[in-house]
Amino acid sequence: MPAADYFDRITALVCRVFDVEPATIGTDTPFAEMGVDSRQRVRLLVEVEVEFGLEIDLDELDRLVDIRNAAEVLAETIEGDRPVVLLGQRTG
């Protein structure tokens, strides 16, 4: 699935996690403009993992700067461009 197919679900998560209204943000609105710090981006990463039932490498955190990039990280993880560990199947 292309990243654009995830925009609505990522937008809903962003609105819930960052407590913003959907009408106030676009897919390219930088999270920094909303006052989002790195801890909040970690929380978003966790929420995306829970919502989609997978684990995203913490190294991807720096790419979570707006909805478009968050959707790209998700799409790449799901499509197999990134290693995927389904939640509940972690090893080590």
TrEMBL record:
Alphabetical list of InterPro entries matching this protein: ACP-like_sf, PP-bd_ACP
Gene3D superfamilies per record: ACP-like (1.10.1200.10)
PROSITE patterns linked to this entry: CARRIER (PS50075)
Domain Carrier: 4-78
Protein name, per record: Acyl carrier protein
